[in-house]
TrEMBL record:
<dbReference type="GO" id="GO:0005852">
    <property type="term" value="C:eukaryotic translation initiation factor 3 complex"/>
</dbReference>
<keyword id="KW-0396">Initiation factor</keyword>
<feature type="region of interest" description="RNA gate">
    <location>
        <begin position="278"/>
        <end position="292"/>
    </location>
</feature>
<comment type="subunit">
    <text>Component of the eukaryotic translation initiation factor 3 (eIF-3) complex.</text>
</comment>
<dbReference type="GO" id="GO:0003743">
    <property type="term" value="F:translation initiation factor activity"/>
</dbReference>
<feature type="compositionally biased region" description="Low complexity">
    <location>
        <begin position="99"/>
        <end position="111"/>
    </location>
</feature>
<feature type="region of interest" description="Disordered">
    <location>
        <begin position="76"/>
        <end position="137"/>
    </location>
</feature>
<feature type="compositionally biased region" description="Gly residues">
    <location>
        <begin position="27"/>
        <end position="37"/>
    </location>
</feature>
<dbReference type="InterPro" id="IPR007783">
    <property type="entry name" value="eIF3d"/>
</dbReference>
<keyword id="KW-0648">Protein biosynthesis</keyword>
<comment type="similarity">
    <text>Belongs to the eIF-3 subunit D family.</text>
</comment>
<dbReference type="GO" id="GO:0001732">
    <property type="term" value="P:formation of cytoplasmic translation initiation complex"/>
</dbReference>
<protein>
    <recommendedName>
        <fullName>Eukaryotic translation initiation factor 3 subunit D</fullName>
    </recommendedName>
</protein>
<dbReference type="GO" id="GO:0033290">
    <property type="term" value="C:eukaryotic 48S preinitiation complex"/>
</dbReference>
<feature type="region of interest" description="Disordered">
    <location>
        <begin position="1"/>
        <end position="41"/>
    </location>
</feature>
<dbReference type="GO" id="GO:0098808">
    <property type="term" value="F:mRNA cap binding"/>
</dbReference>
<keyword id="KW-0963">Cytoplasm</keyword>
Length: 542
């Protein structure tokens, strides 16, 4: 049947279907259906984000075809098919429309069980970094991670202050070089043989008998003596450990809950950790988009608590293994937590340092911190320089919570930068704390180890796959870590504590929100629980 010549633009034709003409020629099928003027049905005309630009102008079938015809300008000899060629290159009648429908259905399956265009937008946005605000629009559909608080807020606790992380990120404070008060303990020389370890020549991680104690501030005899000494006239002293200050300086990166006990007495403020505090343990993939989840299974070796214990065990043994115990440098004073003849004393150095937090001449605020160094290395000039030693650990790249980590045994030697970048993304808070603690201690370098399970299903055996050394300031720049912002957070918390009346307080990180809260608590808080624990232990022994 011969085709009747029509104008080349059917939308502008006087015989075009009623309701299809519009100001811009794209018509208004939506006008007939009660939709917004100038729009067709969205599901019928939707083109997935990121498709070929030509598809955006492809005709979409929304009305009956009987009222218009397709203009055919080809000769009879050229007419071998009766359809038309779509923008996607599909021939044959309305096959192009069927192809579009098949693609839409495919994206629906990839995007989830919900119909419509949501699956397509989710899939495209997730893989290609789609428009902000759309790529993760189905995050609410994931299993909600409702974490428990690190400490139970009692009914008698009184909240004094609530600070959002958005406010913490705006704080800035400059701190001058600290003053060294004293050095305690002993450190060994780093064994450079571990710089040659790689995935093809790995070394088994050994269990070392020596343990490292995380003595809190108020139980530190050196800090206690400094607190009891008569301070200078008008001087306000604040005491803490590098672990606590590191947590405060990186608070805005933290996801897991934590708490710090604050005691105000006269012109002195003491920052403490509780017995068995989570701050004494190393987190794993805390900043991952899909962090490890607690399933309630006690035998799950990939739960957050099990991974934290494993990472703490790895760090303790790695720091003790990669040093040469035959080359020990004794510091000015012996280890304050062990007797002089105790062979089980760990090889670790304690640097007690004093930071000036004063902002005006009238202020006289001193922060005294116990910092730690793990080993010494010879510099190019032949001098001893301090280093801190930490270890990143790989558990199971196929397990939930792995955070898209690469197989270290396959990629660590050839793509070290990509491995480190992934760890910086998944463990941003942990690495930031390590960098801050190294800077507080005045360490010249931070030595990182890469430790992996020998078998992904066994969390008791590990191997060292490699090491890497870096300068703390350079590593902080790579992580976009602003040390001045960290000091701004510390300064703010210290000022809050110094304005409080004498008593006991607790600073708590909300378990599920980017917020920290300051509570006033009774003086007996936490002491009764410790007494009950000691009584129970005594009863069991008897």
């Amino acid at each position: 049947m011969p085709l009747t010549p029509r104008p080349t633009s059917w939308a502008a034709s006087p015989t075009a279907p009623e309701g299809t003409q519009g100001k811009d020629g794209r018509g208004g099928a939506g006008d007939q259906r009660g939709g917004r003027a100038g729009f067709r049905n969205f599901r019928d005309t939707y083109v997935p984000f990121g498709s070929n630009a030509a598809n955006a102008f492809n005709y979409q079938h929304t009305e009956d075809e009987a009222s218009f015809s397709v203009v055919d300008n080809r000769s009879t000899a050229q007419k071998k098919t009766t359809g038309f060629k779509s923008a996607s290159g599909q021939r044959g009648g309305r096959g192009g429309f069927r192809q579009q429908g098949q693609q839409r259905g495919q994206f629906q399956r990839l995007g989830g069980n919900r119909g419509g265009f949501g699956g397509a937008r989710q899939q495209q946005g997730g893989q290609r970094g789609g428009r902000r605000g759309y790529s993760n629009w189905r995050d609410f559909d994931r299993n909600q991670r409702v974490r428990d608080a690190s400490v139970k807020v009692g009914s008698e606790w009184n909240m004094l202050e609530e600070i959002e992380f958005s406010r913490l990120n705006k704080l800035q404070f400059e701190v001058e070089e600290p003053e060294d008060i004293a050095l305690y303990g002993a450190v060994a020389a780093y064994d450079k043989a571990y710089d040659r370890v790689n995935t093809k020549a790995e070394k088994i991680l050994q269990q070392v008998d020596r343990e490292r104690d995380n003595v809190t501030t108020s139980e530190d005899p050196i800090l206690s003596n400094l607190a009891s000494e008569a301070a200078e006239e008008g001087e306000q002293r604040v005491f803490a450990t590098d672990t606590i200050i590191g947590v405060l300086m990186t608070a805005s990166r933290s996801v897991y809950p934590w708490d710090i006990v604050i005691t105000r007495t006269g012109d002195k403020v003491i920052f403490d950790t509780r017995e068995g505090s989570q701050l004494d343990y190393v987190s794993v993939n805390e900043n991952s988009t899909d962090p490890p989840m607690d399933t309630g299974d006690k035998d799950n070796i990939n739960s957050p608590s099990a991974l934290s214990l494993e990472a703490t065990y790895i760090n303790t043994n790695f720091a003790a293994q990669v040093v040469n115990s035959e080359q020990v440098v004794d510091l000015e004073n012996p280890n304050p937590f062990y007797g002089s003849e105790d062979d089980s004393a760990p090889l670790i150095g304690y640097r007690y340092r004093k930071f000036d937090l004063s902002t005006t001449e009238e202020e006289n605020i001193s922060l005294i911190v116990r910092t730690e160094v793990d080993a010494v290395v010879k510099s190019a000039q032949g001098e001893d320089s301090y280093i801190t030693i930490k270890a990143l650990n790989e558990f199971d790249t196929r397990a939930q919570g792995a955070g898209g980590a690469m197989e270290w045994r396959q990629k660590l030697d050839s793509q070290r930068g990509a491995v480190v970048a992934t760890e910086m993304k998944n463990n941003s808070c942990k690495l930031a704390r390590w960098v801050v603690q190294s800077m507080l201690a005045g360490a010249d370098h931070l030595k990182l180890g890469f430790v992996s399970r020998t078998n992904p299903k066994d969390n008791a055996r590990h191997a060292i796959l490699g090491t890497q050394i870096c300068r703390p300031k350079e590593f902080a720049a790579q992580m976009s870590l602003q040390v001045t912002n960290g000091w701004g957070i510390v300064k703010t918390v210290v000022d809050l504590a110094l304005k409080l009346p004498e008593g006991k307080y607790v600073l708590v990180k909300d378990p599920n929100k980017p917020v920290i809260r300051l509570y006033s608590v009774p003086k007996s808080t936490f002491e009764e629980g410790e007494d009950e624990t000691e009584e129970a232990a005594t009863a069991e022994t008897a």
